[in-house]
Amino acid sequence: MNTPDTIRFRRTPARYDVASRFFHWLCVLLLVAQFNIGWLMPDADSVKTPWGLVAWHIGIGTALLVIFSTRLIWVVMRKAPGPGEQRLVLRFLAVVVHGSMYALMLLVPVLGWLNADGRGWIVRLAGIWRLPEFATANSTAAALGEWHSTSAIVLSILIGLHVFAVFVHQVGFRDNLLRRML
C-alpha cells in the first residue's frame, strides 16, 4: 500500500511492550466491569450513602483513574509501534479517536469523583484509601452526574469505534494489527 497518501514508519517495535499490553487489557477488564455496574446499579440520585453496586462503581472508577494515569505516564516514557502503512485519513481518524478516548478515560472518573464529593459521599481509591475532597457536600458538583453519565456513553461509543477499527484491520485489511496488543 505504498501510495502518496500513506505514511510509513520505521524503526519502531513490532509489538507493544509487556507493560503497555498489561495496562491496556487491565483497563479493558475494569471498563467492562464499570459499564456493567453503571447500567445495573440503582439511580444514584436515590442513594444517600454509597453501598452495594454504587460503592463498587466508585471503587472501580477510582482504581481505573489511577491505573489509566499510570498508563499515560508509561505511554510518554516508552517507544510504541508505529501505525504501519496507513492512509492519512485513517491515521487522522485513529489519532482523533485515541485522543478522545484518552481524554474521556480521565474525564469520566474525575466527573464521577466530583459528583460523589458533591453528594457528600466519601470517595475511596479501590474502596480502601480515602481520597481528598474536591467539592463540598451539596455543591454544584452534585449536578455533574449527568455529565458523568453522558461522557461515559460517549466513551463507550468511541470504544465501540476502536473495536470496530481493529476488526476491520484484522479481517478486512488482514494486517494483523491486533497481534501488536496481544
TrEMBL record:
Keywords: Cell membrane, Electron transport, Heme, Iron, Membrane, Metal-binding, Transmembrane, Transmembrane helix, Transport. GO terms for biological process: respiratory electron transport chain. One of its GO terms (cellular component) is plasma membrane. Residues 15-182 form the Cytochrome b561 bacterial/Ni-hydrogenase domain. Its cofactor is heme b. The chain crosses the membrane at residues 21-41, 53-76, 88-114, 152-173. PANTHER family: CYTOCHROME B561, CYTOCHROME B561 HOMOLOG 2. Belongs to the cytochrome b561 family. This is Cytochrome b/b6 domain-containing protein. It comes from Paraburkholderia fungorum.
